[in-house]
Amino acid sequence: MTLTKRKLGELICDELPLVPREAEKLVTDLFESISEGLEEGNNVSLHGFGIFRILDKNSRPGRNPKTGEECLIAERNVCVLKMGTWLKDASNSFAQEHSLTFQH
User: What single DSSP character describes residue 75?
Assistant: First the structure.
């Protein structure tokens, strides 16, 4: 399932007395706040959902899967999410209902 900002806005409108434009702005502002916190080098914690943080990845040797040619994968920064208890419980519940196994 793809969850767009518009769909998130609609879900918020179902719960709060907001018009769709206000709800979509709320979602946009939330993501901008998370992004700004990460850009400043901070971890961003959403209680129960998880902690977003930037992880520095070193350069490493790699291989082009199409050609098999060896190459160097450049160092980079990636955003990672460590799941909080609420999200972890939801994913485990979903996995059990659909006979899936996740490794944390």
Answer: P
Output the six-digit token pair for 43. Answer: 């971890």
Domain match, 100 and 51 both: yes
Do residue 33 and residue 50 come from a single domain? no
In a shared domain, residues 61 and 101: yes
Question: In the chain, how many domains are there?
Answer: 2
Given CA atoms 25, 44, 78, 96 in this order, what sign does their dihedral have? negative
pTM, full prediction? 0.72
Task: Compute CA 24 distance to the chain's CA centroid, rounded to the nearest angstrom.
Answer: 18
CB 43 within 8 A of CB 52: yes
The model's pLDDT over 14-61, given as tens digits with 9 standing for 90+, comes to 999 989 899 999 999 999 999 999 999 999 999 989 999 999 999 999
